[in-house]
Design brief:
Strand content: 5-15%
Number of strands: 16
Number of domains: 2
CATH superfamily of the largest domain: Type I PLP-dependent aspartate aminotransferase-like (Major domain)
Strand order of the largest sheet: 2-8-7-6-5
CATH architecture of the largest domain: 3-Layer(aba) Sandwich
Number of helices: 16
CATH topology of the largest domain: Aspartate Aminotransferase, domain 2
CATH class of the largest domain: Alpha Beta
Oligomer: single chain
Helix content: 25-40%
Radius of gyration: 22 Å
Length: 475
């Protein structure tokens, strides 16, 4: 049967006007922001692909749920509705609500990690790694090698390398590994999923050595969708069934509800262990709020409970991932270098290949994100050396992947918006040799990618191949 067109599984009931600014306006806004897309004011952005975190459009049912928020300080009924939703869809028995995902990361890290511990994970995520290190741990990357190869079509680049995990256990001892941080649909690798077989195998290995496994379940529903599409034996299972099976192998999860749960704020820590839950609740009262609201209002808990149910609907996931695939295929057809296979929550441009004339010291991904905004008002974000930060000796870390992320908010933009984005990326690609790198002129102490500022690097000469060389490097 011939392929048929598809449409988003929703009707638009309310609209938020956006405007295209002039090139001159964008130039001023970019300079004011220090060439950091995080510092551009939202009203100066045309199509905002900075993040999918908290940028979703909520459904009519979620907005209706907001109206029945129980704002009681203790025992809000919305907490119990959320608790039931988490148990039904994720299977964990204890719910600790937080203001967002990093609140859950902080609590888990503080109660689980001791000075000198090692915390393995399938590629780092910025805030997760910070909280682990802040608690005294050392992050160890145990992801498969294919995750660092942008052009590889390996279908499960989020997998843990079992041999790397075993080698770490042999080297430092299981007693120095409090848990494995297992991210579903690995963000920094390009939204790449783990297979169920790998999840099951690595959890069996960890549990055999007394090591717990905690999911970063922020995009676990999207991971379940990819398992359904790519892994033999799961074709006829529902996303809801696959999600429960993923979680059943683990000991708990941290969650940023601002992604899969389809809300604008909120998160949670969920565990099965009674003693661990009690300790987490004690920490919650100190840092977030009472155990029946944590860092959320009752109305936000109600919206999240409803959003969790909507997130596992097959038509929602087909549309969510389908829109990302639509954009990715158009860029591939245009010859644009992106991370492959296409992930779930965004398209990741291979900035190192896109701007191959720029050395890593001049932050090509940051420069590319700035150039895309300048071209069209489309806001993207860097995922490379700026995000990676510095090592213990103060040197810039240059990860194998130097990427620009085009993150698609859920239920926000239409296919026409994706066409505009495609045209902008192609336009920048065609003039890529003219793009100059950036020098960092301000760097905050922690998580520098949020607030760093840059200036355009000045070319000093032309080498024998005709390539512009830059006169200075990042201080």
């Amino acid at each position: 049967m011939q392929n048929r067109s598809w449409a988003e599984p929703w009707r638009i009931k309310m609209v938020e006007p956006i405007k295209m600014t002039s090139f001159s306006d964008r130039e001023k806004a970019l300079e004011k922001a220090g060439f950091n897309t995080f510092l551009i004011e939202a009203e100066d952005v045309y199509i905002d692909l900075l993040t999918d975190s908290g940028t979703t459009a909520m459904s009519d049912r979620q907005w209706a749920g907001m109206m029945v928020g129980d704002e009681a300080y203790a025992g809000s009924r919305n907490y119990y509705n959320l608790e039931r939703a988490v148990f039904e869809h994720y299977g964990f028995t204890h719910l600790i609500p937080t203001h967002q995902g990093r609140g859950a990361e902080h609590i888990l890290s503080q109660i689980m990690i001791k000075d000198g511990d090692y915390v393995p994970g399938n590629m780092y995520f910025t805030t997760t790694k910070f909280h682990q290190q802040h608690a005294g741990g050392t992050f160890v990357d145990v992801i498969v090698d294919e995750a660092h190869q942008p052009s590889s079509e390996f279908p499960f680049k989020g997998n843990v390398d079992i041999e790397k995990m075993q080698a770490l256990i042999d080297k430092v001892g299981a007693d120095k590994i409090p848990y494995l941080s297992l991210e579903t649909n690995v963000n920094m690798a390009g939204g790449q999923p783990c297979s169920m077989e790998n999840i099951r195998t690595v959890c069996e290995l960890c549990h055999a050595h007394g090591i717990k496994v905690f999911l970063d379940a922020t995009r676990a529903v999207e991971n379940a969708w990819f398992i359904k599409q790519r892994e033999a034996g799961f074709e006829t299972k529902t996303v809801k069934e696959i999600l429960l099976e993923i979680c059943s192998h683990t000991d708990g999860c941290t969650m940023s509800g601002k992604k899969d749960c389809l809300v604008n704020i909120g998160g949670f820590l969920a565990v099965n262990d009674d003693e661990l839950a009690e300790e987490a609740r004690n920490m919650l009262v100190v840092y977030e709020g009472l155990h029946t609201y944590g860092g959320m209002a009752g109305r936000d808990m109600e919206a999240m409970a409803i959003g969790i149910g909507e997130s596992v609907q097959e038509e929602h996931m087909a549309s969510r991932v389908g829109q990302v695939e639509y954009l990715g295929k158009k860029l591939i057809d245009a010859g644009i270098p992106i991370v492959r296979p296409i992930g779930s929550h965004g398209i990741f441009l291979n900035a190192q290949e896109f701007l191959s004339h720029l050395p890593r010291e001049l932050f090509p991904a940051q420069a590319l994100a700035a150039e895309i905004y300048l071209d069209s008002g489309v806001r993207t974000m860097e995922r490379g050396a700026v995000s990676a930060g510095r090592d213990a000796d103060g040197n810039n870390i240059y990860p194998k992947l130097e990427l620009v992320r085009l993150t698609i908010p859920r239920r926000v933009y239409t296919q026409a918006h994706m066409d505009v984005v495609t045209e902008s990326i192609i336009s920048v690609w065609e003039k890529r040799s003219e793009i100059t790198g950036l020098e960092m002129v301000y760097e905050p102490k922690r998580l520098r990618f949020f607030q760093s500022r840059f200036k355009v690097s000045q070319p000093s000469a032309v080498d024998e191949d005709g390539c512009k060389c830059c006169s200075s490097t990042v201080s």
